[in-house]
Design brief:
The chain is of the alpha+beta class and about 500 residues long. It folds into three domains: about 5-45 and about 155-230 and about 340-390, FAD/NAD(P)-binding domain, CATH 3.50.50.60; about 235-325, D-Amino Acid Oxidase, Chain A, domain 2 (2-Layer Sandwich), CATH 3.30.9.10; about 395-500, Helicase, Ruva Protein, domain 3. Helices cover about 30% and strands about 25% of the residues. It is built from 13 helices and 20 strands. The protein has helices at about 15-25, 65-80, 100-115, 155-165, 215-225, 290-305, 365-375, 400-410, 415-425, 430-435, 455-465, 470-475, 485-500, and strands spanning about 5-10, 30-35, 50, 85-95, 125, 145-150, 170-175, 175-185, 185-195, 200-210, 230-245, 250-255, 260-265, 270-275, 280, 315-325, 340-345, 350-355, 445-450, 450-455. The strands form three sheets. Strands 3, 4, 5, 6, 11, 12, 13, 14, 15 and 16 form a ten-stranded mixed β-sheet that branches. Strands 1, 2, 7, 8, 9, 10, 17 and 18 form an eight-stranded mixed β-sheet that branches. A two-stranded antiparallel ribbon has the order 19-20. The structure holds flavin-adenine dinucleotide. The site of flavin-adenine dinucleotide has 39 residues, from helix 1, strand 8, helix 5 and strand 16.
Length: about 500
Protein backbone atom coordinates (compact mmCIF):
# COMPACT_ATOMS: atom_id res chain seq x y z
CA UNK A 1 0.00 0.00 0.00
CA UNK A 2 2.68 2.53 0.97
CA UNK A 3 4.40 2.32 -2.42
CA UNK A 4 1.30 3.79 -4.14
CA UNK A 5 2.09 7.48 -4.75
CA UNK A 6 0.06 10.05 -2.81
CA UNK A 7 -1.01 13.45 -4.13
CA UNK A 8 -2.90 16.31 -2.46
CA UNK A 9 -5.50 16.95 -5.16
CA UNK A 10 -6.77 14.64 -7.84
CA UNK A 11 -8.75 16.61 -10.44
CA UNK A 12 -11.10 14.74 -12.79
CA UNK A 13 -11.77 16.65 -16.03
CA UNK A 14 -9.55 18.66 -18.37
CA UNK A 15 -12.06 21.32 -19.34
CA UNK A 16 -11.66 24.94 -18.32
CA UNK A 17 -12.69 24.35 -14.71
CA UNK A 18 -10.44 21.34 -14.08
CA UNK A 19 -7.45 22.98 -15.79
CA UNK A 20 -8.03 26.25 -13.89
CA UNK A 21 -8.24 24.44 -10.55
CA UNK A 22 -5.11 22.36 -11.28
CA UNK A 23 -3.13 25.53 -12.07
CA UNK A 24 -4.41 27.46 -9.05
CA UNK A 25 -3.71 24.58 -6.64
CA UNK A 26 -0.29 23.70 -8.07
CA UNK A 27 0.71 27.36 -7.77
CA UNK A 28 -0.10 27.20 -4.04
CA UNK A 29 2.36 24.34 -3.64
CA UNK A 30 -0.11 21.43 -3.69
CA UNK A 31 0.81 18.19 -5.43
CA UNK A 32 -1.78 17.80 -8.19
CA UNK A 33 -2.80 15.26 -10.83
CA UNK A 34 -5.37 16.13 -13.49
CA UNK A 35 -6.82 13.39 -15.65
CA UNK A 36 -8.87 13.92 -18.80
CA UNK A 37 -10.47 10.99 -20.62
CA UNK A 38 -10.20 12.61 -24.07
CA UNK A 39 -8.22 15.64 -25.18
CA UNK A 40 -7.98 18.85 -23.15
CA UNK A 41 -11.11 20.95 -23.87
CA UNK A 42 -12.70 18.20 -25.94
CA UNK A 43 -15.89 18.48 -23.86
CA UNK A 44 -17.87 21.71 -23.54
CA UNK A 45 -14.85 23.98 -23.22
CA UNK A 46 -14.03 24.05 -26.96
CA UNK A 47 -17.70 24.37 -27.99
CA UNK A 48 -18.65 27.64 -26.32
CA UNK A 49 -19.62 30.98 -27.86
CA UNK A 50 -16.04 32.09 -27.09
CA UNK A 51 -17.03 35.24 -25.26
CA UNK A 52 -15.50 36.55 -22.08
CA UNK A 53 -18.60 38.49 -21.14
CA UNK A 54 -20.69 39.67 -18.25
CA UNK A 55 -23.77 38.25 -19.97
CA UNK A 56 -26.04 41.21 -20.73
CA UNK A 57 -29.17 39.04 -20.89
CA UNK A 58 -28.56 37.56 -17.42
CA UNK A 59 -29.52 40.96 -15.97
CA UNK A 60 -33.12 40.15 -16.95
CA UNK A 61 -32.91 37.17 -14.60
CA UNK A 62 -31.49 39.38 -11.78
CA UNK A 63 -28.16 37.48 -11.84
CA UNK A 64 -26.31 40.53 -10.48
CA UNK A 65 -23.66 38.53 -8.57
CA UNK A 66 -22.71 36.50 -11.63
CA UNK A 67 -22.75 39.49 -14.00
CA UNK A 68 -20.60 41.59 -11.66
CA UNK A 69 -18.05 38.81 -11.13
CA UNK A 70 -17.92 38.11 -14.88
CA UNK A 71 -17.53 41.81 -15.77
CA UNK A 72 -14.61 42.13 -13.35
CA UNK A 73 -13.04 38.96 -14.75
CA UNK A 74 -13.08 40.36 -18.31
CA UNK A 75 -10.31 42.81 -17.49
CA UNK A 76 -8.41 40.41 -15.21
CA UNK A 77 -8.30 37.84 -18.02
CA UNK A 78 -7.49 40.44 -20.66
CA UNK A 79 -4.38 41.37 -18.66
CA UNK A 80 -3.36 37.77 -18.15
CA UNK A 81 -3.59 36.57 -21.76
CA UNK A 82 -3.96 39.46 -24.20
CA UNK A 83 -2.92 37.17 -27.06
CA UNK A 84 -5.91 34.81 -26.87
CA UNK A 85 -8.39 37.28 -25.33
CA UNK A 86 -9.18 40.61 -26.95
CA UNK A 87 -11.81 43.36 -26.74
CA UNK A 88 -14.70 43.24 -29.15
CA UNK A 89 -17.47 45.76 -29.84
CA UNK A 90 -21.02 44.39 -30.13
CA UNK A 91 -23.64 46.15 -32.24
CA UNK A 92 -27.21 45.58 -31.13
CA UNK A 93 -29.83 46.73 -33.67
CA UNK A 94 -32.88 47.73 -31.70
CA UNK A 95 -36.07 45.88 -32.51
CA UNK A 96 -39.06 47.62 -30.82
CA UNK A 97 -41.13 44.39 -31.13
CA UNK A 98 -38.87 42.56 -28.69
CA UNK A 99 -37.64 44.80 -25.86
CA UNK A 100 -38.36 48.53 -25.32
CA UNK A 101 -35.36 50.82 -25.95
CA UNK A 102 -35.42 52.14 -22.35
CA UNK A 103 -34.96 48.58 -21.04
CA UNK A 104 -31.99 47.92 -23.32
CA UNK A 105 -30.49 51.29 -22.36
CA UNK A 106 -30.94 50.54 -18.65
CA UNK A 107 -29.35 47.10 -19.06
CA UNK A 108 -26.37 48.61 -20.88
CA UNK A 109 -25.99 51.33 -18.23
CA UNK A 110 -25.81 48.66 -15.51
CA UNK A 111 -23.46 46.60 -17.68
CA UNK A 112 -21.11 49.57 -18.03
CA UNK A 113 -21.08 50.30 -14.30
CA UNK A 114 -21.46 47.04 -12.38
CA UNK A 115 -17.97 45.66 -12.87
CA UNK A 116 -15.34 48.39 -12.47
CA UNK A 117 -14.62 48.71 -16.21
CA UNK A 118 -11.21 50.37 -16.80
CA UNK A 119 -9.81 49.38 -20.18
CA UNK A 120 -12.89 48.67 -22.25
CA UNK A 121 -14.82 51.54 -23.84
CA UNK A 122 -18.42 52.09 -22.70
CA UNK A 123 -21.74 51.94 -24.53
CA UNK A 124 -22.79 54.34 -27.29
CA UNK A 125 -26.00 54.79 -29.24
CA UNK A 126 -25.96 54.28 -33.00
CA UNK A 127 -27.95 55.77 -35.84
CA UNK A 128 -28.05 52.72 -38.10
CA UNK A 129 -29.04 54.89 -41.10
CA UNK A 130 -25.79 56.88 -40.84
CA UNK A 131 -23.19 54.94 -38.83
CA UNK A 132 -21.19 52.40 -40.90
CA UNK A 133 -22.12 49.57 -38.50
CA UNK A 134 -25.70 49.96 -39.79
CA UNK A 135 -24.77 49.39 -43.46
CA UNK A 136 -25.52 45.63 -43.58
CA UNK A 137 -28.71 45.96 -41.47
CA UNK A 138 -32.21 46.18 -43.01
CA UNK A 139 -33.55 49.75 -43.33
CA UNK A 140 -36.45 49.16 -40.95
CA UNK A 141 -33.98 49.05 -38.02
CA UNK A 142 -32.90 52.63 -37.47
CA UNK A 143 -31.62 52.70 -33.90
CA UNK A 144 -28.91 50.63 -32.29
CA UNK A 145 -26.43 50.36 -29.43
CA UNK A 146 -22.79 49.37 -29.28
CA UNK A 147 -21.06 47.99 -26.19
CA UNK A 148 -17.88 46.12 -25.20
CA UNK A 149 -17.12 42.54 -24.26
CA UNK A 150 -14.17 40.26 -25.03
CA UNK A 151 -13.40 37.38 -27.33
CA UNK A 152 -11.47 34.27 -26.24
CA UNK A 153 -10.00 31.21 -27.92
CA UNK A 154 -11.70 28.83 -25.47
CA UNK A 155 -9.74 25.64 -26.29
CA UNK A 156 -6.43 27.47 -26.00
CA UNK A 157 -7.47 29.00 -22.68
CA UNK A 158 -7.80 25.45 -21.34
CA UNK A 159 -4.43 24.39 -22.78
CA UNK A 160 -2.70 27.45 -21.33
CA UNK A 161 -4.09 26.65 -17.90
CA UNK A 162 -2.84 23.07 -18.24
CA UNK A 163 0.60 24.30 -19.35
CA UNK A 164 0.63 26.75 -16.42
CA UNK A 165 -0.37 23.94 -14.02
CA UNK A 166 2.37 21.65 -15.35
CA UNK A 167 4.94 24.43 -15.00
CA UNK A 168 3.95 24.65 -11.32
CA UNK A 169 4.48 20.90 -10.95
CA UNK A 170 1.07 19.37 -11.73
CA UNK A 171 0.92 16.12 -13.66
CA UNK A 172 -1.47 16.42 -16.63
CA UNK A 173 -2.73 13.13 -18.07
CA UNK A 174 -4.84 13.23 -21.21
CA UNK A 175 -6.63 10.26 -22.81
CA UNK A 176 -6.80 8.96 -19.26
CA UNK A 177 -10.19 8.17 -17.74
CA UNK A 178 -10.76 8.08 -14.02
CA UNK A 179 -12.53 4.73 -13.68
CA UNK A 180 -12.97 4.47 -9.93
CA UNK A 181 -12.34 6.42 -6.74
CA UNK A 182 -12.98 4.95 -3.29
CA UNK A 183 -12.46 6.30 0.22
CA UNK A 184 -9.89 4.30 2.18
CA UNK A 185 -8.31 5.23 5.55
CA UNK A 186 -9.08 8.95 5.27
CA UNK A 187 -7.96 9.41 1.69
CA UNK A 188 -9.01 8.48 -1.86
CA UNK A 189 -7.77 5.47 -3.78
CA UNK A 190 -8.11 6.49 -7.42
CA UNK A 191 -7.83 4.29 -10.48
CA UNK A 192 -7.35 5.57 -13.99
CA UNK A 193 -7.04 3.93 -17.38
CA UNK A 194 -4.90 5.06 -20.29
CA UNK A 195 -7.48 5.07 -23.09
CA UNK A 196 -4.85 4.33 -25.74
CA UNK A 197 -2.95 1.46 -24.13
CA UNK A 198 -5.47 0.19 -21.59
CA UNK A 199 -2.82 0.47 -18.84
CA UNK A 200 -4.30 1.00 -15.36
CA UNK A 201 -2.64 3.16 -12.73
CA UNK A 202 -3.55 3.73 -9.07
CA UNK A 203 -2.78 6.76 -6.90
CA UNK A 204 -3.83 7.91 -3.46
CA UNK A 205 -5.20 11.44 -3.04
CA UNK A 206 -6.02 13.54 -0.01
CA UNK A 207 -8.84 15.30 -1.90
CA UNK A 208 -10.86 14.58 -5.05
CA UNK A 209 -12.19 17.32 -7.30
CA UNK A 210 -14.96 16.48 -9.74
CA UNK A 211 -14.72 18.98 -12.60
CA UNK A 212 -16.52 16.66 -15.03
CA UNK A 213 -18.77 19.35 -16.54
CA UNK A 214 -21.66 17.50 -18.24
CA UNK A 215 -20.33 14.25 -16.73
CA UNK A 216 -20.40 15.56 -13.15
CA UNK A 217 -23.26 13.29 -12.02
CA UNK A 218 -21.70 10.25 -13.71
CA UNK A 219 -18.50 10.87 -11.75
CA UNK A 220 -20.38 11.35 -8.46
CA UNK A 221 -22.29 8.09 -8.84
CA UNK A 222 -20.49 5.63 -11.12
CA UNK A 223 -16.87 6.66 -10.50
CA UNK A 224 -16.87 7.85 -6.88
CA UNK A 225 -19.79 5.69 -5.65
CA UNK A 226 -21.16 8.73 -3.87
CA UNK A 227 -24.27 10.93 -3.80
CA UNK A 228 -24.79 14.63 -4.22
CA UNK A 229 -27.55 16.92 -3.01
CA UNK A 230 -27.20 18.81 -6.26
CA UNK A 231 -27.92 17.97 -9.87
CA UNK A 232 -26.68 19.02 -13.26
CA UNK A 233 -29.09 20.25 -15.94
CA UNK A 234 -27.82 19.55 -19.45
CA UNK A 235 -28.72 22.22 -22.02
CA UNK A 236 -27.49 21.91 -25.58
CA UNK A 237 -26.25 24.89 -27.57
CA UNK A 238 -25.29 24.90 -31.25
CA UNK A 239 -23.36 27.25 -33.51
CA UNK A 240 -23.00 27.60 -37.27
CA UNK A 241 -19.98 28.93 -39.16
CA UNK A 242 -20.57 30.89 -42.41
CA UNK A 243 -18.40 33.21 -44.55
CA UNK A 244 -18.18 36.66 -42.91
CA UNK A 245 -20.67 39.01 -44.56
CA UNK A 246 -19.91 42.50 -43.19
CA UNK A 247 -16.92 44.85 -43.00
CA UNK A 248 -15.18 45.60 -39.71
CA UNK A 249 -14.00 43.78 -36.59
CA UNK A 250 -17.19 44.29 -34.59
CA UNK A 251 -19.79 41.63 -33.82
CA UNK A 252 -23.58 41.84 -33.94
CA UNK A 253 -26.14 40.73 -31.43
CA UNK A 254 -29.79 40.35 -32.46
CA UNK A 255 -32.91 39.78 -30.41
CA UNK A 256 -35.21 36.99 -31.43
CA UNK A 257 -39.00 36.80 -31.00
CA UNK A 258 -38.58 34.10 -28.33
CA UNK A 259 -36.63 36.67 -26.20
CA UNK A 260 -33.34 34.88 -26.87
CA UNK A 261 -30.35 36.75 -28.28
CA UNK A 262 -28.16 35.48 -31.11
CA UNK A 263 -24.49 36.46 -31.48
CA UNK A 264 -22.98 36.98 -34.93
CA UNK A 265 -19.23 37.22 -34.35
CA UNK A 266 -16.25 37.63 -36.67
CA UNK A 267 -14.36 34.34 -36.58
CA UNK A 268 -10.98 33.23 -37.85
CA UNK A 269 -10.58 36.28 -40.09
CA UNK A 270 -12.90 35.57 -42.99
CA UNK A 271 -15.68 33.67 -41.20
CA UNK A 272 -18.61 34.38 -38.89
CA UNK A 273 -19.65 32.34 -35.86
CA UNK A 274 -23.39 32.42 -35.19
CA UNK A 275 -25.09 31.05 -32.10
CA UNK A 276 -26.52 29.82 -29.97
CA UNK A 277 -29.56 27.71 -29.12
CA UNK A 278 -30.81 26.54 -25.69
CA UNK A 279 -32.32 23.05 -25.83
CA UNK A 280 -32.82 20.56 -22.98
CA UNK A 281 -30.54 17.57 -23.60
CA UNK A 282 -30.79 14.03 -22.33
CA UNK A 283 -28.37 12.08 -24.52
CA UNK A 284 -24.71 11.23 -23.97
CA UNK A 285 -22.63 14.45 -23.97
CA UNK A 286 -20.11 12.76 -26.33
CA UNK A 287 -22.79 12.43 -29.01
CA UNK A 288 -24.16 15.97 -29.05
CA UNK A 289 -24.60 17.53 -32.48
CA UNK A 290 -26.53 20.36 -34.11
CA UNK A 291 -29.97 19.45 -35.48
CA UNK A 292 -31.20 20.79 -38.79
CA UNK A 293 -33.95 22.70 -36.92
CA UNK A 294 -31.29 24.59 -34.92
CA UNK A 295 -29.44 25.53 -38.11
CA UNK A 296 -32.71 26.84 -39.59
CA UNK A 297 -33.51 28.71 -36.37
CA UNK A 298 -30.15 30.50 -36.38
CA UNK A 299 -30.35 31.37 -40.10
CA UNK A 300 -33.88 32.77 -39.66
CA UNK A 301 -32.87 34.88 -36.64
CA UNK A 302 -30.02 36.47 -38.61
CA UNK A 303 -32.02 36.93 -41.82
CA UNK A 304 -34.63 38.96 -39.90
CA UNK A 305 -32.04 41.73 -39.50
CA UNK A 306 -29.54 41.64 -42.38
CA UNK A 307 -29.84 42.72 -46.01
CA UNK A 308 -27.73 39.80 -47.16
CA UNK A 309 -29.74 36.60 -46.77
CA UNK A 310 -27.92 33.54 -45.53
CA UNK A 311 -28.87 30.19 -47.05
CA UNK A 312 -28.34 26.65 -45.80
CA UNK A 313 -25.59 26.24 -48.42
CA UNK A 314 -23.59 29.06 -46.77
CA UNK A 315 -23.07 26.95 -43.63
CA UNK A 316 -19.47 25.72 -43.66
CA UNK A 317 -19.55 23.91 -40.34
CA UNK A 318 -21.72 23.40 -37.27
CA UNK A 319 -20.77 22.45 -33.72
CA UNK A 320 -22.67 21.80 -30.59
CA UNK A 321 -21.91 21.63 -26.87
CA UNK A 322 -23.69 20.73 -23.65
CA UNK A 323 -23.90 23.33 -20.88
CA UNK A 324 -23.46 21.65 -17.50
CA UNK A 325 -25.80 23.97 -15.61
CA UNK A 326 -26.61 23.78 -11.93
CA UNK A 327 -30.23 22.61 -11.78
CA UNK A 328 -32.07 25.39 -9.91
CA UNK A 329 -35.51 24.03 -10.81
CA UNK A 330 -36.26 26.57 -13.59
CA UNK A 331 -38.44 25.22 -16.43
CA UNK A 332 -37.14 27.40 -19.28
CA UNK A 333 -33.57 26.33 -20.27
CA UNK A 334 -32.65 29.99 -21.00
CA UNK A 335 -33.65 30.93 -17.44
CA UNK A 336 -31.55 28.28 -15.65
CA UNK A 337 -28.77 30.02 -13.74
CA UNK A 338 -25.36 30.30 -15.43
CA UNK A 339 -23.77 30.75 -12.00
CA UNK A 340 -21.74 27.97 -10.38
CA UNK A 341 -22.14 26.15 -7.13
CA UNK A 342 -20.13 23.59 -5.15
CA UNK A 343 -21.08 20.52 -3.23
CA UNK A 344 -18.42 19.53 -0.69
CA UNK A 345 -18.77 16.03 0.74
CA UNK A 346 -16.36 15.59 3.67
CA UNK A 347 -17.23 11.99 4.61
CA UNK A 348 -14.46 10.29 6.66
CA UNK A 349 -12.04 13.17 6.23
CA UNK A 350 -11.55 12.45 2.52
CA UNK A 351 -13.17 15.43 0.77
CA UNK A 352 -14.94 15.28 -2.59
CA UNK A 353 -15.71 18.63 -4.20
CA UNK A 354 -18.30 18.44 -6.98
CA UNK A 355 -18.59 21.43 -9.29
CA UNK A 356 -21.87 22.42 -10.94
CA UNK A 357 -22.22 25.11 -13.60
CA UNK A 358 -19.79 27.89 -14.39
CA UNK A 359 -18.79 29.87 -17.47
CA UNK A 360 -15.54 30.12 -19.42
CA UNK A 361 -15.52 33.76 -18.24
CA UNK A 362 -15.62 32.96 -14.53
CA UNK A 363 -13.27 29.95 -14.54
CA UNK A 364 -10.44 31.74 -12.67
CA UNK A 365 -12.74 32.87 -9.86
CA UNK A 366 -14.39 29.45 -9.76
CA UNK A 367 -10.95 27.80 -9.47
CA UNK A 368 -9.91 30.18 -6.70
CA UNK A 369 -13.15 29.57 -4.78
CA UNK A 370 -12.85 25.79 -5.27
CA UNK A 371 -9.31 25.67 -3.88
CA UNK A 372 -10.29 27.97 -0.99
CA UNK A 373 -13.20 25.63 -0.26
CA UNK A 374 -10.88 22.67 0.30
CA UNK A 375 -8.19 24.91 1.87
CA UNK A 376 -8.96 23.77 5.42
CA UNK A 377 -7.60 20.33 4.50
CA UNK A 378 -4.31 21.92 3.36
CA UNK A 379 -3.23 24.41 6.04
CA UNK A 380 0.22 24.53 4.40
CA UNK A 381 -1.04 25.78 1.02
CA UNK A 382 -0.15 29.22 -0.34
CA UNK A 383 -2.46 32.27 -0.75
CA UNK A 384 -4.58 33.33 -3.76
CA UNK A 385 -2.23 34.23 -6.62
CA UNK A 386 -3.86 33.96 -10.05
CA UNK A 387 -5.50 37.44 -10.29
CA UNK A 388 -2.18 39.16 -10.96
CA UNK A 389 -0.53 36.33 -12.86
CA UNK A 390 0.06 35.84 -16.58
CA UNK A 391 -1.05 32.74 -18.42
CA UNK A 392 1.70 31.08 -20.50
CA UNK A 393 2.41 33.29 -23.52
CA UNK A 394 0.64 36.23 -21.89
CA UNK A 395 3.94 37.68 -20.67
CA UNK A 396 3.39 40.70 -22.94
CA UNK A 397 4.43 44.14 -21.71
CA UNK A 398 1.38 46.13 -20.52
CA UNK A 399 -0.76 43.44 -22.20
CA UNK A 400 -0.22 45.51 -25.37
CA UNK A 401 -0.64 42.97 -28.16
CA UNK A 402 -0.15 45.50 -30.97
CA UNK A 403 3.21 46.65 -29.54
CA UNK A 404 4.17 43.01 -29.08
CA UNK A 405 3.50 42.11 -32.74
CA UNK A 406 5.56 45.12 -33.86
CA UNK A 407 8.52 43.83 -31.82
CA UNK A 408 8.03 40.36 -33.28
CA UNK A 409 7.97 41.81 -36.80
CA UNK A 410 11.41 43.30 -36.16
CA UNK A 411 12.69 40.05 -34.68
CA UNK A 412 11.35 37.87 -37.53
CA UNK A 413 11.39 40.08 -40.67
CA UNK A 414 11.13 36.98 -42.90
CA UNK A 415 7.85 35.82 -41.37
CA UNK A 416 4.78 36.79 -43.49
CA UNK A 417 2.45 39.15 -41.61
CA UNK A 418 -0.49 36.71 -41.54
CA UNK A 419 1.63 33.92 -40.09
CA UNK A 420 3.17 36.26 -37.52
CA UNK A 421 -0.33 37.22 -36.36
CA UNK A 422 -1.36 33.59 -36.26
CA UNK A 423 1.60 32.61 -34.04
CA UNK A 424 1.23 35.79 -31.97
CA UNK A 425 -2.45 35.14 -31.25
CA UNK A 426 -2.04 31.47 -30.43
CA UNK A 427 1.28 31.42 -28.56
CA UNK A 428 1.90 35.03 -27.49
CA UNK A 429 5.37 35.49 -26.00
CA UNK A 430 5.93 31.72 -26.37
CA UNK A 431 6.03 32.07 -30.17
CA UNK A 432 9.81 32.58 -29.85
CA UNK A 433 10.01 29.02 -28.54
CA UNK A 434 8.06 27.70 -31.55
CA UNK A 435 10.35 29.63 -33.92
CA UNK A 436 13.61 28.79 -32.12
CA UNK A 437 16.28 27.94 -34.67
CA UNK A 438 14.27 29.06 -37.73
CA UNK A 439 15.77 31.91 -39.77
CA UNK A 440 13.64 31.60 -42.90
CA UNK A 441 10.42 29.91 -44.04
CA UNK A 442 12.42 26.77 -44.82
CA UNK A 443 13.10 26.47 -41.08
CA UNK A 444 9.38 25.91 -40.42
CA UNK A 445 9.50 22.54 -42.16
CA UNK A 446 6.67 20.93 -44.11
CA UNK A 447 3.64 22.97 -45.07
CA UNK A 448 0.30 21.16 -44.68
CA UNK A 449 -2.06 23.86 -46.00
CA UNK A 450 -3.47 27.18 -44.71
CA UNK A 451 -1.08 28.43 -41.99
CA UNK A 452 -0.08 25.01 -40.67
CA UNK A 453 3.65 24.21 -40.77
CA UNK A 454 5.59 21.38 -39.18
CA UNK A 455 7.29 23.63 -36.58
CA UNK A 456 3.92 24.51 -35.06
CA UNK A 457 2.75 20.90 -35.07
CA UNK A 458 5.91 19.79 -33.26
CA UNK A 459 5.49 22.64 -30.77
CA UNK A 460 1.96 21.58 -29.78
CA UNK A 461 2.92 17.91 -29.69
CA UNK A 462 5.96 18.58 -27.47
CA UNK A 463 4.47 21.26 -25.22
CA UNK A 464 0.68 21.00 -25.29
CA UNK A 465 -0.32 17.29 -25.19
CA UNK A 466 -1.56 17.20 -28.81
CA UNK A 467 -1.89 13.48 -29.56
CA UNK A 468 -3.99 13.33 -32.71
CA UNK A 469 -4.43 15.22 -35.97
CA UNK A 470 -7.80 16.45 -34.73
CA UNK A 471 -6.23 17.90 -31.55
CA UNK A 472 -3.93 19.97 -33.78
CA UNK A 473 -6.45 20.95 -36.47
CA UNK A 474 -9.41 21.91 -34.29
CA UNK A 475 -8.32 22.60 -30.70
CA UNK A 476 -4.63 23.69 -30.55
CA UNK A 477 -5.21 25.60 -33.80
CA UNK A 478 -8.31 26.12 -35.95
CA UNK A 479 -6.40 25.51 -39.17
CA UNK A 480 -8.65 22.54 -39.99
CA UNK A 481 -11.36 25.10 -40.80
CA UNK A 482 -9.16 26.69 -43.45
CA UNK A 483 -7.78 23.50 -45.03
CA UNK A 484 -9.42 21.40 -47.75
CA UNK A 485 -10.62 17.84 -46.93
CA UNK A 486 -7.66 16.49 -48.98
CA UNK A 487 -5.18 18.61 -46.99
CA UNK A 488 -6.68 17.49 -43.67
CA UNK A 489 -6.52 13.86 -44.79
CA UNK A 490 -2.88 14.17 -45.91
CA UNK A 491 -2.00 15.85 -42.62
CA UNK A 492 -3.71 13.11 -40.59
CA UNK A 493 -1.75 10.45 -42.50
CA UNK A 494 1.54 12.26 -41.85
CA UNK A 495 0.65 12.77 -38.18
CA UNK A 496 -0.38 9.17 -37.51
CA UNK A 497 2.42 7.74 -39.58
CA UNK A 498 5.66 9.67 -39.73
CA UNK A 499 5.26 11.85 -36.64
CA UNK A 500 3.85 9.36 -34.13
CA UNK A 501 6.10 6.52 -35.35
CA UNK A 502 9.16 8.68 -34.76
CA UNK A 503 7.94 9.74 -31.29
C1 LIG B 1 -23.18 26.52 -26.71
C2 LIG B 1 -22.42 27.05 -25.53
C3 LIG B 1 -22.01 28.37 -25.54
C4 LIG B 1 -21.30 28.88 -24.46
N1 LIG B 1 -20.82 30.14 -24.54
C5 LIG B 1 -20.08 30.64 -23.53
C6 LIG B 1 -19.49 31.90 -23.67
O1 LIG B 1 -19.59 32.55 -24.72
N2 LIG B 1 -18.79 32.38 -22.63
C7 LIG B 1 -18.65 31.69 -21.47
O2 LIG B 1 -18.03 32.22 -20.55
N3 LIG B 1 -19.16 30.45 -21.32
C8 LIG B 1 -19.87 29.90 -22.33
N4 LIG B 1 -20.39 28.64 -22.23
C9 LIG B 1 -20.22 27.89 -20.98
C10 LIG B 1 -18.87 27.18 -20.90
O3 LIG B 1 -18.49 26.68 -22.16
C11 LIG B 1 -18.93 26.01 -19.92
O4 LIG B 1 -19.49 26.44 -18.72
C12 LIG B 1 -17.56 25.44 -19.62
O5 LIG B 1 -16.86 25.14 -20.81
C13 LIG B 1 -17.68 24.18 -18.78
O6 LIG B 1 -16.38 23.73 -18.51
P1 LIG B 1 -16.15 22.42 -17.63
O7 LIG B 1 -14.70 22.34 -17.37
O8 LIG B 1 -17.07 22.44 -16.46
O9 LIG B 1 -16.68 21.22 -18.55
P2 LIG B 1 -15.99 20.49 -19.79
O10 LIG B 1 -15.27 21.43 -20.67
O11 LIG B 1 -17.01 19.64 -20.45
O12 LIG B 1 -14.89 19.57 -19.10
C14 LIG B 1 -15.22 18.39 -18.41
C15 LIG B 1 -14.22 17.32 -18.84
O13 LIG B 1 -14.32 16.18 -17.99
C16 LIG B 1 -13.90 15.07 -18.76
N5 LIG B 1 -14.34 13.84 -18.09
C17 LIG B 1 -15.60 13.42 -17.88
N6 LIG B 1 -15.60 12.25 -17.23
C18 LIG B 1 -14.29 11.92 -17.01
C19 LIG B 1 -13.64 10.81 -16.38
N7 LIG B 1 -14.34 9.79 -15.82
N8 LIG B 1 -12.29 10.80 -16.34
C20 LIG B 1 -11.57 11.81 -16.90
N9 LIG B 1 -12.15 12.86 -17.51
C21 LIG B 1 -13.48 12.93 -17.56
C22 LIG B 1 -14.60 15.31 -20.10
O14 LIG B 1 -14.01 14.58 -21.16
C23 LIG B 1 -14.46 16.82 -20.25
O15 LIG B 1 -13.37 17.18 -21.08
C24 LIG B 1 -21.07 28.08 -23.31
C25 LIG B 1 -21.48 26.74 -23.31
C26 LIG B 1 -22.14 26.23 -24.42
C27 LIG B 1 -22.54 24.79 -24.45
Amino acid sequence: MTDIPMVDLFVIGGGINGAGIARDAAGRGLKVILCEKDDLAQGTSSRSGKLVHGGLRYLEYYEFRLVREALIEREVLLNSASHIIWPMRFVLPHSPDDRPAWLVRLGLFLYDHLGGRKKLPGTRSLDLRRDPEGAPILDQYTKGFEYSDCWVDDARLVVLNAVGAAEKGAEILTRTACTSARRENGHWRVEMRDERTGAVRTVLARCLINAGGPWVNDIVGRVAGSNSRRNVRLVKGSHIIVPKFWDGDHAYLVQNHDKRVIFINPYEGDKALIGTTDIPYEGRPEEVKADESEVEYLLAAVNRYFKEKLRRSDVIETFSGVRPLFDDGQGNPSAVTRDYTFDLDETSGAPLLNIFGGKITTFRKLAEHAVQKVGKFFPEMGPDWTAESKLPGGEIENADFVGFTERMREAYPWLPRGLLHHYGHLYGARMTKLLAGATSMAGLGRHFGAKLYEAEVRHVVNNEWALSAEDVLFRRTKQGLHMSPAEREAFAQWFDGELLRAA
